[in-house]
Amino acid sequence: MVVVSTTPVQSKRYIGTEIPVIDLSCRREIAQEEIVNACEEYGFFKVINHAIPNDVVAKMEAVGLEFFAKPVTEKQQAGPANPLGYGCKSIGPNGDTGEVEYLLLHANQQLPAKIICEENQIEFSCVVMEYVGSVKELACEILELLAQGLGLEDTETFSRLIRDIESDSLLRLNHYPSYNCNKEDNNKVGRVGFGEHSDPQIITLLRSNGVAGLQILSPSTDAGSWVPVPPDPAAFFVNVGDALQAMTNGRLVSVRHRAMVTSYATRMSTVFFGGPPLHAWISPIPEMITTQRPRRYRSFTWSEFKKMMYSLRLGHNRLELFRFK
Ligand code: GA4
Question: Which residues form the Fe2OG dioxygenase domain (predicted)?
Answer without folding.
Answer: 166-276
